[in-house]
Fold:
Amino acid sequence: MENKKIMICDDDAGILEVLEMMLDIEGYTVFTESNSTNLMKGINENKPDLLLMDLWMPVLSGDQLLRTIRSTKELEDLPVIILSASVDGNEIADNAGANGFIAKPFDMDAVSIQIQNILQNT
Structure:
């Protein structure tokens, strides 16, 4: 999946670092954002092919951001995978319009496979 751009938004610096390193090794161009209030600006500047986003972040939560993305004409088709340790995270992600869900703690291979599957189908 060379030349595909992935943006990651998570308030946990460790998760951002691990995901960025893994996806960079796989040949993706990776952008990270730890502050949810800056996400929309980052999406508009970097035009990612896929967004990985934490569900629970300070100020703006992942489901709030996802609803904004889905209601924005230019971004409504952006594939989004939600990451969360929440027991009902999958349901929340689905209700907000996510294309996929990954439970934390996550398996790196599972993350990679889900990203590949979504990118191949868009």
Summary: Residues 5-120 form a domain with the Rossmann fold fold (CATH 3.40.50.2300). The mean pLDDT is 94. The beta strands are 5-9, 29-33, 50-54, 80-84, 100-103. The chain has one domain: 5-120.
